[in-house]
Design brief:
17 helices, elongated, alpha/beta, single chain, Aminopeptidase, 46% helix, 15 strands, seven-stranded mixed sheet
Length: 433
């Protein structure tokens, strides 16, 4: 009689324990009931075996074969804990009792900050090649033959000589203007490459990449209105200056050019950010090669804060042989020529896999369309588009351009005179004119 009463009381206590555990699971959170669960694992397992021995045994052996009674009590108890953990892990309240759901779901993902660190390390290593390749400077001179890669180009020509040669090649000369090239003529790969591009030996520019039709058909008109930032101007090499730079003319550098270009574009209704950060000085020392790494960090932050920006312009000044002075008359002013510069993210043996540029074709199209507009409306303004092997941060936007303005042998006034026609050319392309 007493044994029967004791058995019923024990069963009631177990039933109450299961109900209490259920209430704690539903309303208490994991911290409240985790200890209770751990203490009750064996009791709950015993209850399960008593009430549904065949079902419990089959499920238990299926998910943890080594936990059968024949393997001993240690393995059996371990198996019971594993089985119950598997069961409770199916409940969201158990899984997320001590951590947020977002944390639990992202726990296995790669740390993005670590990946950024790895990418920057690889990027910095690659840009050490700039020391060997001479950065983006062309080192042009009076007897200089630009490295033309596989194109067989004629080398670096003066802007005036280039205009004369292209007119002789069949481009249409407009009264009082420059040259207009028929699409059929531009479709000739050899003609396009020899007249518009100079290819450095560090890269290659084959027919699979260089398509005039693809460049011309690319719509580069702006989608965003001017109520948000549209254009970013910055300077990887902010310390580049011109011949008349000095204590009394401290603005005679590329940063001064950027400020003037920003003013001209704002006057046309564009929303412009001019980043005057110094990326090529570290601890007071010039560091031109790693400046691209530092600049990428800087402009990435600006672009993240201003996702509406569609155009990114890196304004430079070329480095040429001393005594080599490039100047043309544009709009009645002595003007330093500009040169659009594109990084191909490839060597002669193929793409640089860890420096991808998904915007390469758009970058090339942007330069090519501006080059053609300059030839049509401002003859003598531009040199050939220069192609080199690395990426030069042009991957950040489809409408990214690295623009060399004059050289160290030009005066600031000559370089500044190039900004007005450059602003006009930019406006034509960005408006789809």
């Amino acid at each position: 009689m007493e044994n029967g009463r004791y058995g019923r009381q024990k069963k009631r206590l177990r039933t109450f324990g299961i109900l209490l555990l259920s209430v704690l699971v539903l309303f208490g959170g994991r911290k409240t009931w985790k200890t209770v669960l751990e203490n009750q694992v064996r009791t709950v397992a015993e209850e399960g075996r008593e009430r549904a021995p065949l079902l419990f045994g089959w499920i238990f052996r299926h998910y943890y074969p080594a936990g059968s009674a024949a393997e001993g009590n240690v393995q059996k108890n371990k198996g019971e804990e594993w089985w119950l953990d598997w069961l409770w892990e199916s409940l969201p309240l158990y899984r997320y009792g001590t951590v947020s759901e977002e944390t639990a779901l992202t726990a296995g993902r790669e740390d993005p900050s670590y990946q950024t660190y790895v990418d920057n390390r690889r990027f910095a290593t690659e840009y050490e090649a700039l020391l060997g390749w001479g950065g983006e400077d062309t080192q042009a001179g009076e007897n200089h033959e630009s490295e033309s890669g596989q194109t067989g180009g004629k080398g670096e020509e003066s802007p005036a000589q280039l205009a004369e040669n292209t007119a002789e090649a069949g481009a249409e000369a407009l009264p009082g203007k420059g040259l207009v090239y028929p699409r059929e003529q531009l479709a000739d790969y050899d003609f396009m490459m020899s007249h518009f591009f100079s290819v450095h030996s560090s890269t290659t520019a084959g027919r699979d990449i260089m398509s005039a039709a693809a460049f011309l058909d690319r719509d580069l008109s702006l989608a965003q209105t001017a109520d948000q930032p549209q254009i970013l101007i910055y300077h990887t090499h902010s310390q580049e200056t011109f011949a008349d730079y000095g204590p009394e003319n401290t603005e005679a550098g590329v940063v001064g050019l950027g400020s003037y270009l920003a003013e001209l574009l704002k006057a046309k209704g564009y929303n412009v950010i001019h980043d005057t950060s110094v990326y090529d000085l570290r601890d007071g020392k010039l560091d031109r090669s790693r400046a691209y790494t530092y600049a990428l960090e800087g402009i990435s932050g600006i672009l993240q804060e201003n996702p509406s920006i569609e155009v990114v312009l890196d304004i430079h000044r070329d480095g040429v042989k001393e005594g080599y002075h490039m100047v043309s008359e544009v709009n009645g002013k002595q003007t330093a020529p500009i040169m659009f510069f594109d990084g191909m993210s490839r060597t002669p043996t193929g793409p640089i896999e860890y420096l991808p540029n998904p915007n390469l074709e758009s970058n090339l199209a942007f330069s090519f369309q501006m080059q053609l507009k300059a030839a049509e409306y401002f003859p003598g303004l531009t040199r050939k588009i220069y192609l080199k092997g690395l990426r030069y941060n042009l991957h950040v936007r489809p409408r990214s351009a690295l623009i060399e303005v004059g050289a160290q042998t030009n005066t600031y006034e000559e370089a500044k005179n190039a900004m007005e026609p450059l602003a006009e050319v930019l406006d034509m392309v960005l408006q789809g004119k």
